[in-house]
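ok new one. same drill as before - structure tokens go in, u give me an amino acid for every spot. 498 of them this time. try not to just spam alanines like last time pls lmao
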């Protein structure tokens, strides 16, 4: 026993007993002065932090990003230069389920990457799908409410989901992917990731390129059917953690090929579709995917809570040579993600070890709860404001300013529906599916529509029909087979416009 370190309170004092409370005599009540007991109870009460409103259940690991191609004509970003290797963290997640949700549920998967570059942290916070349900952040909170629990029943509501989707036709593309085979990957290694948003790169001549990031699994796509997923959940609710953590422990390191689609800045004006619309992909035939490197995950976290639960990704984290775009949902997320972390983790969440940049940090933020990293980070106690004349104090870096953004657009500031085609790209995807994929799509949708009122079902079927008549017919037949559904002619409504 003597070679064991001394058990102490969090203040460092040795603890005489960790098995028995301190009582007033053998049968007496516990004394308030038993601080070890008080501290144990108090800490236990505080072991949880607010879970993420979305993407609560997650799995993560460390690795490296390798850039193998010359991208200097597109960007000055040091992490994107040929031969560069950058340490990184990845976190995968489901969207709707809470922290204890089963891993093998049909849902979009979060695909978040943090690159610890020499110029600061660069985060790409995407999904395993190239598009999303909305094109405007104004709709995000309402959409998520439909995915979470009903306020009275505290159950998830298929009626709310399909009511909202059927009234928001821009969701059709993502709904189709979600209900297809790719909506239930077997584990994080067997799915692609996408930056989803349009971002930008800019070079040393001040030229901007719009860019889409793709991360193609080198393990191949593998999925479960609904039935396989349900059977698995009966055996384990933690299949993703077991597969990712266990695989890395065994030395099986998954890889993803990194690809870019690149559009010169001014081409965006001539594009036949809105390249900043998150419900749309850039067709490969117009903007081919270019291989630029790969990333590998090869190290597990030592402490899940500290390094994965407290990992804070935000698309606002960018580095010189990388920029945002007018993608409205991206613009909303630039605020939302950092704000969520300030609420969930605290003011100084970026200073937590897993989030802290691996490069020097100098700024003038001051004080605040849990300033555990040494106060002013300017490096000089006299330099706690700016501008100042203190020698050696941190100064702004005008050379990393982005090229000016050319703003174009029309007079209509709010209505982004007009002229938007919500059906062609879901149709293109539907046409890619073989007969088996289509049958599973129909069956998955019908299963998810169980109990939904006919009026809502008909409104959604009208959207499927606008994408492809076979899409509507297939879902209608599956509804009849699974639920005995017949067309509700009384309450059927035409597809709703915004
Ligand atoms: P392409 O035929 O050139 O591209 C098809 C792409 O679709 C494939 O490269 C693959 O993307 C993806 N795909 C193939 N099978 C499936 C499937 N079962 N479920 C989901 N995605 C699949 O045509 P387009 O580029 O014109 O795209 C056609 C449709 O493909 C789009 O409307 C979109 O729904 C979907 N898609 C397109 C992507 C893009 O960036 N253009 C990306 C992903 C899907 P991947 O190589 O990424 O696996």
């Amino acid at each position: 026993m003597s070679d064991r370190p001394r058990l102490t309170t969090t203040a460092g004092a040795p603890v005489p007993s960790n098995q028995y409370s301190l009582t007033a005599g053998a049968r007496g009540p516990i004394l308030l002065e038993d601080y070890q007991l008080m501290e144990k109870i108090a800490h236990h009460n505080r072991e949880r932090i607010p879970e993420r409103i979305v993407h609560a259940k997650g799995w993560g690991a460390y690795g490296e990003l390798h850039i193998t191609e010359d991208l200097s004509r597109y960007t000055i970003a040091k992490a994107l230069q040929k031969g560069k290797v950058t340490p990184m963290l990845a976190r995968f997640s489901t969207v709707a389920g809470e922290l204890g949700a089963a891993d093998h549920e049909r849902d979009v998967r979060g695909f978040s990457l943090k690159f610890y570059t020499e110029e600061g942290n660069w985060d790409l916070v995407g999904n395993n799908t190239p598009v999303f349900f909305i094109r405007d952040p104004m709709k995000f909170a309402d959409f998520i409410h439909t995915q979470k629990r009903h306020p009275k029943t505290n159950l998830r509501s298929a009626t709310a989901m399909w009511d909202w989707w059927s009234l928001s036709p821009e969701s059709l593309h993502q709904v189709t992917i979600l209900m297809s085979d790719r909506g239930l990957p077997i584990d994080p290694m067997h799915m692609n990731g996408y930056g989803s948003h349009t971002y930008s790169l800019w070079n040393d001549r001040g030229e901007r390129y719009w860019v889409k990031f793709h991360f193609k699994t080198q393990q191949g796509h593998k999925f479960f059917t609904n039935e396989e997923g349900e059977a698995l959940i009966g055996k384990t609710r933690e299949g993703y953690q077991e597969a990712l953590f266990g695989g890395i422990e065994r030395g099986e390191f998954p890889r993803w090929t990194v690809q870019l689609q690149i559009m010169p800045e001014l081409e965006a004006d001539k594009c036949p579709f809105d390249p900043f619309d998150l419900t749309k992909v850039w067709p490969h035939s117009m903007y081919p995917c270019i291989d630029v490197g790969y990333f590998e995950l090869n190290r597990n976290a030592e402490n899940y809570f500290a390094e994965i639960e407290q990992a804070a990704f935000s698309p606002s984290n960018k580095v010189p040579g990388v920029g945002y775009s007018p993608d409205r949902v991206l613009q909303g997320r630039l605020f939302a993600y950092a704000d969520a972390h300030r609420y969930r983790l605290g003011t100084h969440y970026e200073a937590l070890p897993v989030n802290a940049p691996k490069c020097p940090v100098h700024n003038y933020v001051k004080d605040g709860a849990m300033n555990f990293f040494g106060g002013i980070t300017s490096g000089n106690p006299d330099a706690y404001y700016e501008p100042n004349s203190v020698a050696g104090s941190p100064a702004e870096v005008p050379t990393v300013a982005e090229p000016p953004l050319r703003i174009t657009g029309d007079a209509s500031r709010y209505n982004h529906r007009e002229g938007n085609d919500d059906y062609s790209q879901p149709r293109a995807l539907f046409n890619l599916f073989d007969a088996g994929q289509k049958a599973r799509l129909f069956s998955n949708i019908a299963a998810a529509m169980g109990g939904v009122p006919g009026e809502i079902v008909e409104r959604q079927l009208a959207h499927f029909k606008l994408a492809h008549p076979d899409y509507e017919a297939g879902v209608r037949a599956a509804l009849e087979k699974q639920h005995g559904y017949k067309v509700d002619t009384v309450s059927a409504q035409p597809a709703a416009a915004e």
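The chain is about 25% helix and 15% strand. and btw Residues 130, 177, 180-182, 192, 214, 281-285, 425, 428-429, 432-433, 437 surround NDP (CB under 6 Å).
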